Amino acid sequence: MYCPENCSREDVRVLERHDAPELFVLLRGSIVLVVEEGGVVREVPMEPGKLYVIEEWHNAYRPGGCEGVALVVERPGVKTEFKEVRLGGGSR
Question: Which residues sit opposite 57 in a β-bridge?
């Protein structure tokens, strides 16, 4: 179960990437995935019940701190890399 600590895009300071795909499913509330693909950062508002397979640099936030809970599935022993990022003030 995953409830992002971030409440806005500006709160996202770190992106992570795993050595295997990760599955996200929004269970309730609202979560926006922040995904970097090819150097371009985009926001993906999650839809309830839709499967999101993420292989890129990513993080997430709950808009305005609202409720947001997702099921996240990843394989055991996954390796994770982190990088700092500045996302505030950009366009979607």
Answer: 36
The model's pLDDT over 1-54, given as tens digits with 9 standing for 90+, comes to: 999 999 999 999 999 999 999 999 999 999 999 999 888 999 999 999 999 999
Paired tokens of 15: 């992106």
pTM confidence score: 0.89
Domain architecture of the chain: domains with CATH: 9-84 (2.60.120.10)
| Separation of alpha carbons 5 and 92, rounded Å | 20
> Residues with Cβ < 8 Å from 52, sequence gap 6 or more?
23, 24, 25, 33, 44, 46
